[in-house]
Amino acid sequence: MLELPQVATGLLAETLEKFIAEELRASGLAGYVVGLSGGVDSAVSAALAAAAVGRERVLALALPGPTSAPESIRDAQEVAETFGLRLEKVDLGASAELLAGTLGARGDRVRFGNLLARLRMVALFDRARTVPALVLGTSNKSEILLGYSTLFGDAAASVQPLGDVWKTHIFELARALGVPQTLVTKAPTADLWPGQTDAGELGFDYPTVDPVLFWHHEGGMGREELVAAGFPSALVDGALGAYRRNRFKWRPTVVARVSASCMNVDRILPRNPER
Length: 275
Hints:
Blueprint: H1 9-27, E1 31-35, H2 40-53, E2 58-62, H3 70-83, E3 86-89, H4 93-103, H5 109-130, E4 133-135, H6 141-146, H7 167-177, H8 181-185, H9 198-202, H10 206-217, H11 223-228, H12 233-245
Parallel strand pairs: 1-2, 1-4, 2-3
Helix pairs in contact: 1-2, 1-7, 2-3, 2-7, 4-5, 10-12
């Protein structure tokens, strides 16, 4: 069966650190703000940023909600201690409950989870305003392609250093960067309701689905080719179904083109004002 190609972890880390440093330099801002969820993605983003621009320029926020697991805060604290980051805790429980009650969303765990994900980003951008800083994203390529993210929630950030990195390779980066082993081995979760896991919602784990996504998205293989290559048909159908169903999330703000200079369609402008 086909596998996900290997990655040069050291070179990948170096490339991402240069990207993070350049984006901050071009912005003219003072640093980065990153939400530490207690998961491996946010830990890797924070570690890369600390190496790229210095730990004193990276502010970490822990953003628990009313249903967050206690170990998420514990793991966020361990990451902050490991990489020497200042960690602020902002409890979103009361705000989430109030807004959910106003909207009538508390009885729907998906609506409530999306609301909490967006409140977390509100808190990050608000705190970034006071620094001033860029908000560092934590979404990886596997999540983005599967649509396992919340528009204007975890998908919203000033920069996304991991957006072109497969989740399988995130684990490798985490080990190379010295992320605590407890985060590398724990089951990935958005921690939006008790017992939630990525694999439980998706129906497969990332090491299993990443090769399917790679050979479809980058290798151009269709369903029948993937099944013929040895991938279980149920896995292929589940992965391609999510891939096609959620493609609208890949470009969250689509601008109607009515000129020859439409932003993000005809003209990609550099961040750097000097260019």
